[in-house]
Amino acid sequence: MNEINVYVVSDSVGETAELVAKACVSQFRQSRNSISIKRFPYVEETANVDEVIALAKDDKGIIVYTLVKPAIRSYIEEQIKLHGIVAHDVVGPIVSSLQEACEESPINEPGMVHDLDEDYFKKIEAIEFAVKYDDGRDPRGILKADIVLVGVSRTSKTPLSQYLAHKRLKVANVPLVPEIDPPSELFKVNPSKCYGLKISPDKLNHIRKERLIALGLNDDATYAKMERIQEELTHFDQVVSKIKCPVIDVTNKAVEETANIILNDQLN
Questions:
Q1: Contact 77, 105 (CB under 8 A)
Q2: CB 179: neighbour CB atoms within 10 A?
Q3: Helix, strand or coil for residue 64?
Q4: Which tens digits make up the pLDDT trace of 70-111?
Q5: Half-sphere exposure in the Cβ direction for 209 (13 Å, CA)
Q6: What Rg, from alpha-carbon coordinates, does the chain have?
Q7: Which of 9, 126, 145, 188 could, after both became Cys, cross-link 65 (CB 3.0–4.6 A)?
């Protein structure tokens, strides 16, 4: 099979059009290796358009474009029609429909999507951070984090970390176990960024038994026994007293409630 060229043309970086093109190419398992996507960013002059038109005409390529400036979009449309080139306008029809629905003229400025995406990328970065520094797997994250959560097993540290990550906060969480010394970084972090998650022994006993049953294990394992739980909670109290950080009782709180306490505290 001959190679098929898809020319991605944009008056910005061209990420949007390229993403659409890649999504379409992915639908063709047998042919995808024969399809080549070539990006032409920052196309703002007719000479740039002429270059792409010549290439597409020569090899019967397909043009996919996101051009928001009316003049340059009109020019490429004329050239496409003139030379009989297969092409697809990714944003034009949608912008036109929105213009009619909103009764507002578009600003026609390239690259505006990146301003909107900044918040999205911060959220993704925070989510990746929470995964990387979950459950104390790398103590170096403690000093890099916006928020540090400490608590015994089954106090919702991981779901709380992910919830806060969606609020664009980088969260590390550290499990406390009597047999293992807490990481030294935990005592170097600003106490105002650290939160101890406290829970009642009875509630923790119930949660741990349910967890063991869900795993197909016997619910009378040491992990769920009251003696062990009391030992862990005593150790927790000792550590958070040394850190001098705020403590939140999560016994009867949903993750969202605990998160809101932390978020409000950080605003003050």
A1: no
A2: 7
A3: strand
A4: 899 999 999 999 999 999 999 888 888 888 888 888 877 766
A5: 10
A6: 28
A7: 9
